[in-house]
Amino acid sequence: MLEITGLSVAYGGLRALSGVSLRVGQGQFVTVVGANGAGKSTLFKTISGVVAAQQGTIQFDGRDLLATPASMRAHLGIAHVPEGRQVFKAMTVRENLELGAATKAGRQGWVHALDRIHTLFPILSDRATQLAGTLSGGEQQMLAIGRGLASAPRLLMLDEPSMGLAPAIADMIFERIAQIHREDGLTILLVEQRVAEALELCDRGFVLETGHMVLEGPFETLMADDRIRQSYLGLGDA
Predict the structure, then answer these.
(1) What is the pLDDT of residues 18-65, one digit of tens each?
(2) What is the domain partition of the chain in residue ranges?
(3) If one looks up domain 25-50+71-231 in CATH, what number appears?
(4) Which residues of 146-181 are buried (b: 16+ CB within 10 A; e: fewer)?
(5) pLDDT tens digits along 207-232
């Protein structure tokens, strides 16, 4: 579904991504982990079209994304749930969800999507007329994910969904993400700093360090790697 080859991105002369390659198959759950500043959010912004690529290719179902305007990428079925949630705070919960449904597929599937969102996150139904800016951080993250789902996406990209959340709330968010993948078969690309939890969810994981992909493989392979155990999990040699 999504294939990235040799992707390089620079900001102001500084290289943020260098020769990054990654593949996400239809229905897969793929996780990219790495420390803060590794380039994870830059990767998502480049896929979404917010940031321009210097080199490389991004193909989505055989279509050249780098030749597709950013404004059109959501209409292809790519939903980007950004780092820091970025809900529209002066708008109600329902209005935020309605904005997510601005794609053709989102408009056509609005009734079903809204019911699904409320099943996953019942608090969003209870708070439908409440301003998004008055929600807690965890509720805003639920809304951000719901807004992504409202577009009826084929690929859901989640950027650091646990950021700034209490551990119990972050655990619940991860459970819902896993539920979405398991029950709906939605293709998911996740970037996250909580390495153990993020890798446990995925079919395949990638490790990004200072703009380079340094490791990839299934959960068991990555969790057994000394580099992961020492650098990200704080464990000694196996």
Answers:
(1) 999 999 999 999 999 988 889 999 999 999 999 999 999 999 999 999
(2) 25-50+71-231
(3) 3.40.50.300
(4) bbbbbbbbbbbbbbbbbbebeeebbebbbebbbebb
(5) 999 999 999 999 888 888 888 888 77
